[in-house]
Amino acid sequence: MDSDSLDVVDQRLLEALQLDGRAPFSRIARRLEVSERTVARRYQRLCGRGLRIVGQPVAARLGLVRWLLRLRCTPDAAGAIAEALARRADTSWVTLASGGTELCCAVNTRSADERNALLLRKLPRTPHVLSVSAHCMLRMFAGEASTWHATRFGPVPPVPAADSGTPATAPLTLDATDRTLFTELARDGRATLPELSAATRRSPSSVQRHLDRLRTEGALGISVDFDPQLLGYHMPTQLWLNVAPAHLRTVGETLATHPAIAFAAAVTGTSNLVASGIFRTPADLYDYIDQHIGPLPGIQTIETAPTLQEVKRLAPALP
């Protein structure tokens, strides 16, 4: 299925869902200037093509530390290792790149013991893993609200999140209702209040208060998951940048405004800024580097790693 099968209404619906994945169809219909029935019908059709609206926990706001891992594996084992990592509840963004020998994934850890169990014991002892580099995410500039936002209609305004450099606060305390909501919204980010009320055994008004608190406090993000290839974007690429410290914030915040960038974060390691870009063709990737990356101040080196396969894009709810 190619991008020609998605018309302007489909693409504008995807854009509206990125602005608010739980927005009522009536509000989206007014924005798109079509009927509510049309929005509902188009939404169901997109779901049949892989669209998912998913509630995602915001790691830092819940006391988790987020790591980005780069593994180099033997070509015959990289796929199996990627699948094994994808089955873990604490991972997301599992991708294969560099001829199928490099694997990247994001992982959330609750404690030093959890971190060390994976990074110091599990992965180094995994057969056919040649090397592991772990990069702690220091500040997320883009990526909490969606898995992509490169649409022909321009950039979607980034949604502020606790990961994005706001002053440190104590992790939000979750009760049983909150945890049930995370589980249900991981299945369907647009689950209705009556459905969530039945799952939590709380009144709809109580559920709404919990949802408002989680979203206002920056603990819950509503993510839009849709294969960018269905919109004609066939060149997803990770960009590893080495940026002079004095320009790191400026470059990160600038990347977050670019429609092509689905994720950007300051990280530890030799490359101190990593971004995921979504491009239509290799020529578009070149133009982006030439016209948008090149003029930015303080960039010393850049490494590009085209994604060959996305094994996992979104993580499930908290365990």
TrEMBL record:
<keyword id="KW-0238">DNA-binding</keyword>
<dbReference type="InterPro" id="IPR011008">
    <property type="entry name" value="Dimeric_a/b-barrel"/>
</dbReference>
<dbReference type="Pfam" id="PF13404">
    <property type="entry name" value="HTH_AsnC-type"/>
</dbReference>
<dbReference type="InterPro" id="IPR019888">
    <property type="entry name" value="Tscrpt_reg_AsnC-like"/>
</dbReference>
<dbReference type="InterPro" id="IPR036390">
    <property type="entry name" value="WH_DNA-bd_sf"/>
</dbReference>
<dbReference type="Pfam" id="PF13412">
    <property type="entry name" value="HTH_24"/>
</dbReference>
<keyword id="KW-0804">Transcription</keyword>
<feature type="domain" description="HTH asnC-type">
    <location>
        <begin position="174"/>
        <end position="234"/>
    </location>
</feature>
<keyword id="KW-0805">Transcription regulation</keyword>
<dbReference type="Pfam" id="PF01037">
    <property type="entry name" value="AsnC_trans_reg"/>
</dbReference>
<dbReference type="InterPro" id="IPR000485">
    <property type="entry name" value="AsnC-type_HTH_dom"/>
</dbReference>
<dbReference type="InterPro" id="IPR036388">
    <property type="entry name" value="WH-like_DNA-bd_sf"/>
</dbReference>
<dbReference type="InterPro" id="IPR019887">
    <property type="entry name" value="Tscrpt_reg_AsnC/Lrp_C"/>
</dbReference>
<protein>
    <submittedName>
        <fullName>Lrp/AsnC family transcriptional regulator</fullName>
    </submittedName>
</protein>
